[in-house]
Amino acid sequence: MTDWKEIISSTVNRWVDSKGTPIPGATLKPLLVSNAGEDIPGERFIDFLKDHSDIISIIQRPGTDILIVPIQKYELLVENDPSLKLRQDVYKAFTWILDYGTFCYDPAKDMFILLEEESSCSDGNIIVPTRSLEDELGLRKDFISLVDAQYEDELNEVLEGSGKVVFHNFSKTLAKHKLFPIWQKHRGQDTLKRIHKWSLDVGVEFKGTWTTSSKFQSMIEKSASSYRKDIFSSLAHLSQEDLARISIPLDIVQKLFKK
Questions:
Q1: pTM here?
Q2: How many domains, the chain?
Q3: Which of the listed ranges 39-48, 210-219, 230-239 does the model predict with the highest average pLDDT?
Q4: When you count CB atoms within 10 A of the terminal residue's CB, does the N or C end of the chain come out lower?
């Protein structure tokens, strides 16, 4: 019997060790077939890969090929796509410091919801660990240890302040020294690691819908803008009688004229 787990693990690790990037699904599939000497079982490649989610991590996003990395190197997905962003509700759930309440994940709606009380998290939904002030300070101190020594004293002094305002001042100081992009990448990797660990701990699949690429979002927005222009252009060729027969809900009309 073919040991697919070993073949997948060795093939993915070999690629990542050599290239330093995630391996696209379109590249991985023929490599697996070649290494195994037989076709991939099942009808859908993605389902086959998900059956081995204990050794690999997969991310799916609309309009792009799937990306695969060894489960212990999930942060490579951020390094591979610097434009990768977390969906707003996901970002808030894993980075916000709450004075009260808690975030709860609803698998049915695929949404992270802020609740006033932990007890309000319904059966089947999953509580997200609350982020503390100490957690966020620790993350920034870890980052300071990685930057050039000339900035250490100034950044550490900023963190000696009190309250959440230190985070704003920290970001301003980073921007002054042009370190903010590096910090964003560092924080993104840390957040993605924590989300991935949480998903494994609670038995929830890390979903591609939790992330988006700003490059892809820009493409969608441009496409939508072009589509609106095409609609108005087409309407210009209709007669008054034709237009009178068209019934469009008011909220849709408002959206069309919004931009």
A1: 0.62
A2: 4
A3: 39-48
A4: N
Question: According to the model, what pLDDT value does residue 81 have?
Answer: 62
Instruction: Please tell me whether residues 121 and 168 are part of one structural domain.
Output: no
Which domain covers residue 89, as residue numbers? 84-130
> What value, to the nearest 5°, has the Cα angle with vertex 136 and ends 147 and 201?
110
Handedness of CA 246, 250, 253, 255 (dihedral sign): negative
CA 113 from chain center: how many Å?
17
Task: Look up the CATH number of the domain holding residue 63.
Answer: 3.30.420.610
Question: Does one domain contain both 201 and 144?
Answer: yes
How far lies 179's CA from each of 4, 145, 172, 183, 223, in Å? 43, 13, 10, 6, 33
| Of 130, 140, 151, the residue nearest 186 (C-alpha) | 140
Rounded distance, CA 215 to CA 45, Å? 26
Q: How many CA atoms lie within 13 A of 93 on its CB side?
A: 25
Q: Which residues pair with 58 in a beta bridge?
A: 68
Query: What whole-number distance in Å separates Cα of residue 125 and Cα of residue 121?
Result: 6
Neighbour-count burial of 211, counting CB atoms closer than 10 A to its CB (0-12 exposed, 13-18 middle, 19+ buried):
buried
Q: What's the Cα-to-Cα distance from 125 to each of 93, 106, 119, 152, 167, rounded to whole Å?
A: 14, 5, 11, 42, 31
According to DSSP, the β-strands at 111-115 and 211-213 are unpaired
Give the tokens for residue 92.
């808030």
Whether 151 and 97 map to the same domain: the answer is no
